[in-house]
Every structure is written in structure tokens, then in C-alpha cells.
Amino acid sequence: MKTAHDLVAAAKARVQEIPVTDAEQAIREADVLVDVREADEFAAGHLAGAVHISRGMLEFKFSANPALQSRDLNMLLYCKTSGRAALAAAALHDMGYLNVRSIAGGFDAWVAAGKPVAKPEIPSFE
Length: 126
Prior knowledge:
40% helix; 5 strands; 5-stranded parallel beta sheet; alpha/beta; globular
């Protein structure tokens, strides 16, 4: 019986992970930066310019959104530590997307490297 760790390891063997040191350049080159964490994680802080599509809804959101239909989009994915992003990248490859990469170490590695974190603006009611 396979474990979640086994599935992540298999996904990581199939997808390209980029080191956090190369992430800023990869973000600039990406057509879309996707945060596959849960909504509460995204709300607590995310990479600037990222769109939120949780791992659980990924295939459905990509299938339903005309802006995400092109199979040659240059996509960069991330999650908390890189497991969900690897699984998501493997799923997108299986759907026929050609240019999908993920950030090794995910959001935690980004923060540990001292990179900037964006947070949704809370409206002021003054």
C-alpha cells in the first residue's frame, strides 16, 4: 500500500522543481503562479501575484477556466513545503500541460530565504 509520502516522491520524480534561489526569475517568466494551498493558508500570506487554486479543486478549476486552457502555459506552482505542488504539477502534466514547474521547499523555503510575502488587504471602515 502506498503512503502519501510515496505518492509525493513519485510525483517529484516526474516534475521539475526549481530551487528557491531561482524562484524570482521563474515567477517573472511564468504566465501563471499558482498557490495550491488551502484558502486559509493563502489568506495568511502568499507570493505576490499568485492565484489561489487549492489542490483539491485543481483539475476542475483548470478545466473550467478558459484562461487556463492553453496547454503551453508556463506555470509555476507552490504549496507549504512542496508535496502538494508536486502532486498538482504531476496532475497537470497528466492533463497535457507541458510547462509546469514547482518551487522546491514551497512557501516555507521562500519565507526562510527572507523573500517578501503578500497578504490580502483588509478594507478599512473608518
